[in-house]
Specification:
Elements lengths: L4 H5 L15 E5 L3 E8 L12 H9 L2 E6 L1 H14 L14 H11 L12 H15 L8 H11 L4 E5 L1 H9 L3 H13 L4 H14 L2 H12 L3 H22 L4 E8 L9 H7 L4 E3 L2
Parallel strand pairs: 2-5, 3-4, 3-5
Antiparallel strand pairs: 1-2, 1-6
Helix pairs in contact: 3-7, 4-8, 5-8, 9-10, 11-12
Length: about 280
């Protein structure tokens, strides 16, 4: 399920709409500040209804929206990827992957345009594979959580910000050591035949607000590659937890929408906040 790792940056979904999704959401607050943490999917099938109930209330009352990337940074992500992805010297995919993994990689590549993998770093090939899986699952970022939230907040004249830059986010992959990158790429290729199904399991758990199932899906993917888990999940969660604690020093109501995988488990943001002595309440 390593193909899901790019989805943890831009969480993916499945082609079947979750008509009445109730994604998990938490609240951390003090006397004059409320910060709601909503588990997000960046791309969803058309018709997915997730922004009713408590989420609708928070959208109406929040003063600002904070996501992983601001809209401006998201617009820069493609160019940053193109600048970071190329290898110093080409290396044939046949020299990187064992025969079974190579065959699965070629099958995924054959479902669309050529990845151009020989000229790209291992992490970049894996990201392209994750995007292809999203395409095969018939996802649409225009129906994703962040896209819809951004429009709602902009229409209301409310500020929309981000926790990271596009470069910072992609450098999480670029700076992984070569052995970890190769392990991730090999696992992604080996499991690519099941990737659409795995993405479906992730989205179904998200739609039910089933944090235990979400944690299991994510842990099955990243626990086998500890260095990737530390860089892509744990370290970022720690930075975001620190941001929340700093933001509590100023009054207001904030909706923070980040990939759902960052809010579950013992190293999820809510758990980190609780470990630091803050009260965190699940509100949906």
């Amino acid at each position: 399920m390593a193909t899901l790792l790019p989805c943890l940056l831009a969480a993916c979904g499945t082609a079947e709409p979750v008509r009445q999704a109730t994604p998990a959401m938490w609240l951390v607050a003090d006397d004059d500040t409320q910060i709601y943490m909503l588990g997000a999917m960046h791309a969803l099938p058309r018709g997915t209804d997730w922004d009713g109930g408590k989420v609708a209330d928070v959208i109406g009352t929040a003063d600002e929206l904070v996501m992983e990337l601001s809209p401006e940074e998201l617009a820069e992500a493609g160019g940053v990827f193109q600048s970071l992805a190329p290898r110093t010297a080409p290396l044939a995919m046949a020299k990187r992957l064992p025969p079974p993994a190579l065959a699965s990689y070629r099958a995924l590549e054959a479902s669309g345009s050529d990845f151009g993998g020989d000229t790209l770093d291992d992490w970049a090939v894996m990201v392209l594979m994750g995007q292809r899986v999203a395409q095969k699952a018939e996802l649409d970022s225009s129906d994703g959580v962040e896209t819809r939230l951004t429009q709602r907040f902009k229409d209301a004249g409310k500020p929309v910000g981000g926790l990271e830059t596009a470069r910072e986010q992609l450098m999480l992959f670029e700076t992984l050591d070569p052995a970890t990158q190769r392990t991730l790429l090999t696992r992604a290729a080996e499991k690519s035949g099941d990737a659409v199904k795995d993405v479906g399991a992730l989205t179904a758990a998200w739609g039910r607000g089933d944090v235990a199932a979400l944690e299991k899906v994510i842990n099955d993917d990243v626990d086998a590659v500890p260095a990737a888990r530390k860089a892509i999940i744990t370290d970022r969660n720690r930075r975001w937890s620190a941001w929340i604690q700093k933001r509590l020093e100023r009054p207001g109501t904030v909706l923070m929408a980040v990939g759902a995988g960052h809010l579950v488990g013992s190293d999820g943001v809510p758990a980190m906040l609780e470990a630091d002595g803050l009260k965190v309440t699940r509100v949906q």
